[in-house]
Amino acid sequence: MSDTMVTATPVDREAVLAAIRAGLRRGQQALADWEGGRLAVSAVPGSGKSTGMAAAAAIAIARHQLRLNRQLVLVTFTRSAAANLKAKVRGHLKQLGLPQTSFTVSTLHGLALSIATRNPELSNLNLETLTLVSPAQNNRILRTCVEQWIVANPDRYHNLIAGRQFDGEETEQLRRQSVLRTEVLPNLAHTVIREAKSSGLMPADLSVLAENANPALPAEVEGYDVLTIAAGLYDRYQSLLAQRGWIDYDDMILAALRTLDDPDSCRFWQERTFAVFEDEAQDSSPLQTRLLTLLAGHPGDPTGEPNLVRVGDPNQAINSTFTPADPVFFNQFCDDCRQSGRLVTMDQAGRSSGVIMAAANHMLAWVNQTRVAGPETPFRDQAIAPVPANDPQPGANPTPLGAGLELLSPPTTLDSVKQIAQRVSDLYREHPEASFAILVREGRQGTFIGNLLRHPDQVDGIDLAALGLKFYDVGEQDRQTRVPEEMLTLLQFIERPHSPDRLKGALRVLVDRQRVPTQDLNTLAQAPEQFLYPGPLDAPPDTEAARLARRYCAGLLRSRLELPPYSLFSFIGLTLGYNQSELATTDKLAARVSQQIRYDDTLAAAIGVLQDIVGSERFTAVETEDTDSLYTRPGQVTLITMHKAKGLDWDVVFLPFLHDKTIPGTLWVPPQGEFLGNFTLAEVARAQIRAYAHGEHGEIPDLITAWEQAKHLKAAEEYRLLYVAMTRAKRLLWMSAAQQAPFTWSKPEAVQGAQPCPVLPVLRAWLQAAE
């Protein structure tokens, strides 16, 4: 048989199109039947969004005879999702005998970059003169803009130092200055810049917004004027970017919009674009939505209905508390489309067994009805429905393992892990083909579980490896990628130990690596010499935790006198308790740095090379694990955070440590920042900007009201995160909240009585009523 592709005849093509459509479910078919204009597709977990989108794309390409100069544009939010979607569309086009040049798949920022760089005179974006700022570079810019703002605004800065009350004591003043310079103001700048830019607000716009904010403030917080402070930081950030010739990711979107603001350029792009299909639309910002809407418009007809299909699940919007994404915008799009009969609900899902879907539906309805997130409505009212018996996609709604849903209340968190190990062991013996996952809310919970499961003597002698099970700790792999940054931080401290910032950075790494307990690092770092080498008249903190931190720091400083730069890498790795993979990554990093400083073997030269590596992000960790099959292969236990688990699924999912302190939890004011008040400036500013972006009558809430709104937004997102975690399970969902749990996961051994997440007793009562 010839290897050349056989082009399908028109009759064959119609048959193939019919077969592609017949292989879809009801909601997927409604997406595939799109013929033009706007369409909102609100999907549920496991409904096959990417499968439906790929089929709809191929059908649209065939029906409208698209080609290279008239393409379908598919937009996703990650490169891996783009590659997956591209492969699916190509498979359909190969069946249809159609050219592969009729569509493009890209991330949203990749698309914006393509538009902006084609007309640099319009976008003011020229990659020959501009550089995309890396996260490390961005952090340095934020620190610089904070320092510049402090110099330019001494009165506002002193208002912040004074806080709610202040007796003028010098040590406390130094501590507060450290907190403001290294934590509060950088966090405020980072949050506001992303929120404002993604909403299309520039510094001048934010200043106007600040003037319109509600001036009625309680006496104890008068003078903070959060948005005015934020606008000043934002303005300096933009100036610093311009001076250095740098841009950030939001600048790429703005540059693309400037290009499309030109009528001729806009016509050019619209003539090349037949339609835009957007995936994960619940995570779009207003600026990104505006770009896609413009691109999907009709040439020469700005009032026409754009060919824009947006697919998403607002109930899986779990990034809005740390990115500018907000499900309210996609919900508004869905509601607008519903009025014109252009809303499709893709509610049939084949991923999970019936009891798991029913539990997720019950949780969703209970959260919305009981208003546990205040005035916020966390979920769109759409239930997951099973697929019909004749579903065209194989393996749908699998039979449950055991009862399908298990709710437990172990005595302690240690008992929780022991019970997980025992349940995995029992299930694996009966179902060696099954895949398992343990989902945690935060990384330190994962570290706790990982440390126990790697030592069979800690979990009643259950050895997963001896059973033939592979254990894959995703958090451990992520920690390897932080090796260059941690090395840089500690070497900078070794070079300049008298710098409060360098000392605090080193202490932060030691705390993150759990070498020393969590404590107020600002108190330790405010007077480095007194802390590191106290004299007879000095009185540095003298707790056991502080003494341990001092011993580690003194050991690091002594190493500089005794070791060459190359050997410092291994010493730091051992000091931080690196595992085998991290030590291998450290050796690779040391070899690269040593090669580049062979003619200048000094600590300063090594730090310079590391800064380049961290800034350019061009260093790959050494992988000692085979990660080609990702996280879901059979016969494996995957330990992963709930956020990273989105988009994945396993036969068996364990959700331990579901306590009310974690989900929904409360917005936490760090103790070191309590002098400002019972709120954080960053969250207040975020809530104020979002109130404007949501178009809530133009009213900007005052500081106290904004903080209350921020708390409700956090609770709503935490419940959505639990919903995402529950819907990762296919055949068995195991949920537990131990009767005792750590007060803080940085000290997992210090346990106290703990209350379960409110969802657990509700599900338990629901199960009992159903029996």
Write the layout of secondary structure elements.
Blueprint: H1 10-22, H2 26-32, E1 39-43, H3 49-63, E2 71-76, H4 79-96, E3 103-107, H5 108-118, H6 120-123, E4 131-132, H7 135-152, H8 154-162, H9 170-198, H10 203-212, H11 226-244, E5 246-247, H12 249-260, H13 263-272, E6 273-278, H14 286-295, E7 308-312, H15 327-339, E8 343-346, H16 354-370, E9 405-408, H17 413-430, E10 436-440, H18 443-453, H19 464-467, E11 470-473, H20 474-480, H21 483-495, H22 500-512, H23 521-525, H24 528-532, H25 544-562, H26 565-575, H27 580-596, H28 603-616, E12 636-641, H29 642-645, E13 650-655, H30 681-693, H31 703-726, E14 729-736, E15 740-742, E16 751-753, H32 759-770
Parallel strand pairs: 1-7, 1-8, 2-3, 2-6, 4-5, 6-7, 9-14, 10-12, 10-13, 11-12, 13-14
Antiparallel strand pairs: 15-16
Helix pairs in contact: 1-3, 2-3, 3-4, 5-12, 7-9, 7-11, 9-11, 9-30, 10-11, 12-14, 16-31, 16-32, 21-22, 21-28, 25-26, 26-27, 30-31
Structure notes:
By secondary structure, the protein is of the alpha/beta class. The protein has four domains: 10-120 and 252-346, P-loop containing nucleotide triphosphate hydrolases (Rossmann fold, 3-Layer(aba) Sandwich), CATH 3.40.50; 131-244, no CATH class; 405-475 and 632-770, Rossmann fold; 482-616. Helix content is 53%, strand content 10%. It has a six-stranded parallel sheet with strand order 3-2-6-7-1-8, sandwiched between helices. The longest helix is centred in the N-terminal third of the chain and has 29 residues, at 170-198. The model is unreliable at 1-6 and 622-628 (pLDDT under 50).
